[in-house]
Design goal:
binds zinc ion, about 20% strand, binds 5'-O-[(R)-(carboxyoxy)(hydroxy)phosphoryl]adenosine, 10 helices, single chain, alpha/beta
Amino acid sequence: MRILGLETSCDDTGVAVYDTERGLLAHRLYSQVALHLDYGGVVPELASRDHIRKLLPLIRAVLNEAGVAGEELDGIAYTAGPGLAGALLVGAAVGSSLATAWNIPAVGVHHMEGHLLSPMLEPDPPAFPFTALLVSGGHTLLANIESIGRYTLLGESVDDAVGEAFDKVAKLLGLGYPGGPAIEQAALKGTHGRFHFPRPMTDRPGLDFSFSGLKTAVVVALKERALNSQTVADVALAFEEAAVETLAIKCQRALETTQHERLVVAGGVSANKKLRARLVQLADRENIKVYFPRPAFATDNGAMIAYVGALRLKAGQRQGSAFGARPRWRIEELPAV
Ligand code: KG4
Ligand code: ZN
């Protein structure tokens, strides 16, 4: 079964072809970072228009590279939500139209399920059940993953997502967007111990997160202080350490609850090298195994959408004649496979 995957939920246009026998045949990503740079963040209307411009040429290029004609596909998967409404609608409209033209089924995929299952594209994929930490620009959640579509939420952020906190702190430090990679880079020159930020909500039981207070702690630390490059690096390092440590503490607590032997970490923030190193250390100590997507598939991409689409289409799930976007969509609402 060969499935075309389309990702347009935010500021990346991602396209891929996944073959259930042969694996990933081709994938490409067009990033809108340069387009939104002047505004310090994603401008939804500009994002939608750019997806319209880039999606069809990217599909052509990926089909070409995969050596597959549109009519030879067995289905199309597009990100139906959660995400920016206008941006999602581009993928939904293009995916559904091509599926009608080529007389193949289409399916709307949940973006966070894409992230969740992205490590399945790697050579040594995790077996079920496992505990998952999903960390992106819009979500921070821990979940008990029993099998495809059987997800129980263990905890989530009550305010900002951790990626959002990286982006906001980067803005405060004048590092631009997207904030995660910029903070990671700046922190390399940071001095340990000059700043110390709280590990929010780790001093009480539970698996929920809160990251807006961490951002406020950075605002307070920067008050009446000259923003020279050393201070930027020192704050970036202390913030990164606080965010990573908070996530690690909650992962350990979640694993104590689920008693799972496998931890999956995915989503944009899972590209962070300190987070990966800290969770590998935790896994070694606890004698469990931790799984990540390759760094290029930690952030948004079409491959994870094609993969999830293949699983769900193979199970007979598909959309009817109507299509749409679901800007808000909880992962626990997904049907089991
Ligand atoms: O999954 P993703 O690409 O898009 C969403 O679904 O939101 O995640 C984007 C988020 C952004 O907040 C970005 O700053 C963060 O992931 N991010 C990182 C890193 N790379 C991306 N955060 C920390 N360290 C990184 N290396
Ligand atoms: Zn994402």
